[in-house]
Amino acid sequence: MASWEEQLRDELAGRGVAVSSVPGKGRALIATRNFFPGEVIIRQEPYVSTPNKFSVGANCDNCFSSRNLRKCSVCRVACYCGRDCQVEEWKLHQLECRAMAALTVALTEEEKKKLTPTLIRLMVRLVLRRKLQNEQAIPSSGTDNYNLVDALESHISEVDKNQLELYAQMANLVQRILPSLELDLKEIAHTFSKIACNVFTICDPQLRPLGTGLYLVISTINHSCVPNAVVIFEGRTAYVRAVQPIAKNEEVSISYIETAATTVKRQDYLKPYYFTCTCPRCVKDSEEDALLEGYRCKDQKCDGFLMPNSENKAYTCQKCSISRDEKELKKMASEVLLLSDKASSILSSGNNSEACSMYKIVEEQERKLYHTLSTTLLRTWDTLSKIHIELQDVQTALMYCRLTIPVYERVYPPFCPLIGLQFYTCGKLEWSLEYTEDAVKSLTRAADILRITHGTTSGFMKELLVMLEKARAEAYFKLSAGDEQQIDR
Ligand SMILES: [Zn+2]
Ligand SMILES: [Zn+2]
Ligand SMILES: [Zn+2]
Ligand SMILES: [Zn+2]
Questions:
Q1: What's the 225 CA to ligand 4 centre distance in angstroms?
Q2: 32 Cα to the center of ligand 1, angstroms
Q3: How far is the CA of 307 from the centre of ligand 4 (A)?
Q4: What separation in Å is there between the alpha carbon of 476 and the centre of ligand 1?
Q5: Rg of the chain's alpha carbons, rounded to an integer?
Q6: Residue 246 dihedral angles phi and psi, to the nearest 5°
Q7: Which of 15, 224, 309, 397 has the fewest CB atoms nearer than 10 Å to its CB?
Q8: Per mean pLDDT, which range of 4-18, 137-151, 289-303, 428-442 is the poorest?
Q9: What per-residue confidence (pLDDT) applies to 285?
Q10: How far is the CA of 82 from the centre of ligand 1 (A)?
């Protein structure tokens, strides 16, 4: 019988990819044929997964749907949307069912905060799935076997002491949850370290987080701040699609982080993954960073960007050459950051109208400091738009949403799902206000981008395309009604 490596190679060869080692990077996923934008490079089910809010039953354990949920009557933890999902999960769940009931009771509130129940449940399922595959109670394949977990990078030698201690505690807890199995605690702690830098956050089509999963082939895809592919989930199935043409023998890359940030910030976001990115953006000079930081000209009528000028510790406008003192800028920036933190804590306390007034003050201050194409103003406008949607003030929500669009288009690559989703939000708001022609334009832009990143067959995309058709029909009807009126006259 073929080894798992040979099986993996054969299964991936059929899809036009291969796992290879790349000097200095470890494992990587390489295209063995050309891929065009929008094409699925690889699709994978998780080896193990769990909804993030499993103890309150917000999503089905199997398909991540949030509709018609019913809790398992024994553990009152696992949740399913129907019989089919329950049956599919049964072999694994019957082993964890009682243990899960014990987990939620055994953990104190403090432990829940510290020990990340999601990762613990993921580990319990990992151990159980390995057992089931070893006993051949469930099938395994080249892309679905525990050897791929063994092959994951753990970076254990770089993990700090406190974190290692935490992993050891978590391993103990896993043993407490599964008393009938004899576990190698050291190995479990080590595996926690692997999971930590290899798990994916499973999101809905609008990129709102729902759960956590381990995708063993997709985990071999390395990061780039200018990725040529993107991961989007349908339920818990992960789809990696090309967002740029990828040539044969080229490495497939995705982004692990928020890419609309300066190089220093991006390197900081990448710390949990233990590598230094050397993508084209990370090795370039600092011009792009200055634009992303986005300080504005002192002259309120000038729309120039400022660039740092190390000689006189100042930032100089690229249009009119007026300078702003670096110290003064940094002071203003830290003051406005304090205000914005305050606004954010009011928002998380659920007081939308108070948060709204606070964010308006933040925006006013930020406008004195930042260019209208800066990422700082982008975040504030995004938040203000969302708050106004909550407050059902659609008109104002739309105004802020429209302000964000040029910034999204500037700071993200052309086929970034975030741009598509922002056009989608904009189009929906316009449609609800009966700005039909504007809605057609926005939804068309949304569909053009999302059809590449999301494909066209998911429920979300079908809904979007139907909405676009309706808006087009309505706009056409309005236009022809307008023509008739003219004829009448
Ligand atoms: Zn389901
Ligand atoms: Zn159960
Ligand atoms: Zn980079
Ligand atoms: Zn200027």
A1: 30
A2: 35
A3: 11
A4: 40
A5: 25
A6: -115, 125
A7: 309
A8: 289-303
A9: 67
A10: 6
Residue 49 Cα, ligand 2 centroid: separation in angstroms? 15
In order of their start, the domains of the chain are 4-254 (2.170.270.10), 412-489 (1.25.40.10)
- One-letter amino acid identity for 281? R
Instruction: Show the DSSP H helices in 455-489 as ranges.
Output: 459-488
Helices 375-390 and 326-348: crossing angle in degrees, nearest 10, is: 20
Alpha carbon of 118 to ligand 1 centroid (Å)? 19
Tell how far the Cα of 65 is from the centroid of ligand 1, in angstroms: 6
Tokens of 439: 């809605």
* Confidence tier at 483 by pLDDT (50, 70, 90): low
Ligand 3 center–CA 192 separation, angstroms: 26
**55 has a pLDDT exceeding 80:** no
Nearest to 195 by CA among 111, 251, 272, 253: 272
Q: Averaged over 307-315, what is the pLDDT?
A: 82
- Across 196-200, 216-220, 291-295, 443-447, least confident range: 291-295
Mean pLDDT of all residues belonging to the chain: 91
Q: How many CA atoms lie within 13 A of 319 on its CB side?
A: 12
- C-alpha 265 – ligand 4 centre gap (Å): 26
Q: Which ligand is nearest to the CA of 324?
A: 4
Which residue type does 477 have? F
Ligand nearest to the CA of 297: 4
Query: What pLDDT, on the 0 to 100 scale, is given for residue 308?
Result: 85
- Rounded to an integer, what distance in angstroms lies between the CA atom of residue 123 and that of residue 149? 11
**What are the DSSP calls for 84-121, one per residue?**
HHHHHHHHHHHHHHHHHHHHHHH--HHHHHHH-HHHHH
Separation of CA 67 and ligand 2 centre (Å): 19
CA–CA distance from 393 to each of 208, 397, 399, 428, 475 (Å)?
A: 22, 6, 10, 14, 24
Ligand nearest to C-alpha 72: 2
**Any idea which of 75-84, 100-109, 154-163, 190-199 has the lowest mean pLDDT?**
100-109
CA distances from 141 to 11, 217, 225 (A): 9, 12, 32
Whole-Å CA distances, 443 to 103, 241, 471? 46, 21, 9
Whether the predicted pLDDT of 487 surpasses 60 = no
Give the separation between CA 103 and CA 113, rounded to whole angstroms: 14
What confidence tens digit (pLDDT) does each residue in 25-38 have? 889 999 999 999 99
| CA 97, chain centre distance (Å) | 30
